[in-house]
């Protein structure tokens, strides 16, 4: 295309900028999630993630030291300390009433009730002074507006993995995904070979059936299968979901593999037949090894589909600790921890991490599968 | 951990089982009809006639149980009451057309059906056409394609964060509202605005599906013969003309494929609606409504009827696909 556009034509720049814009639009939501998931949870709710590298201004409620630590200085009782405790920060405003939490500038000495006075310095050190003894065991409330340095942490991840049960769900998802990805492959490969290279009555009808079943909505199958599972006693179990994913994945598997296998050169198969090999030998020794790219394509599809599935897991697996998969856990968290963005963002990232790794490392096969699955027969 | 071992073990058993079946059945076939001796020729023919059915057997069985039987069972259930036992004729269908929430779901689904495939195809075509012209196009493609790997529920969380809304006096942490506030507008609670909230849910699916459209259409664009393009250039067509008048008509077939594939997906959209609004504020869709009647309403008859409506909507695409296959062969 370079020849048409010319090297430095303004159009080239328009293209570059448009693509950049598209890429930014498409990646920003995910970047926001990732950045937010490693922010300190208090900072996360205080400011937008795009400001996470700058200092954060927050309104905090701190408590002074309890009455037991009071000292007597020049006839007054005093409480001293630092609102930041062991951290450091900058105070930009303070107050002593919740109605006016940022009424005063740091360094000022302000009058409180009953002759008490309060001073908070920029560095956070405070001085409470009173003509009568302090009595509060919990200390007085101090309202401060502070500038905090950005904090990045993996605490959110350890919390969701260990305290929120996501770690267990991760294992459950693995348990569902591994067999559900592998089992359909061999079954589909044999059927695909039969549809591509074997002569038998009704072949065209079977192929049409597979193409038709490609689009049958899963919703159709849920209730009948649920009833069937209850009747024959499978109930809500891993066996049930493995078989379900195998059944639902088969049309695509057969279709993809048939397209690929039908495209293999006829001479290979003919010459093997001439040499006296039967279809079984041809399939196992010649077709299967040659079909590796198509098998890989399907395996990736099925893996992503099963890993990301929510519907089938909700219907065919239970809601308990032993069976709740990650997508189900995320859905539950959306309900119960709707406002806890530190939990939601970290959990979501854990759940998309494996698919993203698969995606970026095996993209080639994924694209190839998409093309052979759609462009030809459609 | 035991569970994952169990899964691995199952996987091995299943694969061995499959292999056992295929090898075993083939071996039995060879024993019954040996390919040597007096009847060798007749036996080989018999084997060749039986073998396809051995190859297809497990697939046919699974497809029948998991996809074909349910269609008929759903039709049966749709004519029966909530537990699936009492025959009630067309009562479920009559209920359906008079049900407000169903009408809402149906209209919403139609909106999804128009907007999502159109927008995904448009952005996909745009991305395909543009990225093919630049040196870092493959990286750009990869990044636009990436949402495809993310689950609908993960994507919902990602976008719920984008749409996050807080009162006017608090700093916005959702980027969309933050941009609005930055330009002096008032923050909006996107998810609870009827009609518009559906559009915000659709954006999530468009975000996911654009990569798919881009991959297919980009391959189609590359398939256009160079000579055609060179001829057009020599005739003085500018790049925009070439794109709109030569390239787009040539890839019409692929556009149709992308469009129908996304259409099917849209009809089944469930996770996004469930996670974002669960059908509240006028955003219900058929698949989620069906789920509602199944798990909250516990009415298998009504639920199966809604599933059949989805099936009916898919039917034209199914017929079109099968026809295409016929023409191809």
Characterization of the model:
With 378 residues, chain A is an alpha+beta fold. Chain A is 57% helix and 12% strand. Chain A is built from 15 helices and eight strands. In chain A, β5 and β6 (117-120) form a beta hairpin. With 329 residues, chain B is an all-alpha fold. Helix content of chain B is 75%, strand content 0%. Chain B has 14 helices and no strands. In chain B, α4 (100-131) packs parallel to α8. The two termini of chain B are 49 Å apart. The model of chain B has no long low-confidence stretch (mean pLDDT 87). Chains A and B meet through α1, α2, α3, α5 and α6 of A and α1, α2, α4, α5 and α6 of B.
**Fourth-tier CATH superfamily name of the largest domain in chain B:** MetI-like
The geometry of chain A reads as elongated
| Order of SSEs of chain B | HHHHHHHHHHHHHH
Strand fraction of chain B: under 5%
Question: Helix proportion of residues of chain B, in percent?
Answer: over 70%
**What does the overall shape of chain B look like?**
globular
List descriptors:
heterodimer; A: 378 residues; alpha+beta; MetI-like fold; 3 domains; 5-stranded antiparallel sheet; 3-stranded antiparallel sheet; 15 helices; elongated; disordered N terminus; B: 329 residues; mainly alpha; 2 domains; 14 helices; globular
What's the arrangement of secondary structure elements?
The complex is a heterodimer of chains A (378) and B (329).
Chain A: H1 2-5, H2 10-37, H3 41-46, E1 56-63, E2 71-73, E3 76-82, E4 90-95, E5 109-111, E6 117-120, E7 125-130, E8 141-148, H4 155-163, H5 166-197, H6 203-213, H7 219-232, H8 238-262, H9 266-274, H10 279-290, H11 292-308, H12 311-316, H13 326-336, H14 341-361, H15 363-374
Antiparallel strand pairs in A: 1-8, 2-3, 3-7, 4-8, 5-6, 6-7
Helix pairs in contact in A: 2-14, 4-14, 5-8, 5-11, 6-8, 8-11, 11-14, 11-15, 13-14
Chain B: H1 2-32, H2 40-78, H3 91-98, H4 100-131, H5 137-145, H6 152-162, H7 175-182, H8 196-222, H9 226-234, H10 239-250, H11 252-267, H12 271-276, H13 286-295, H14 300-328
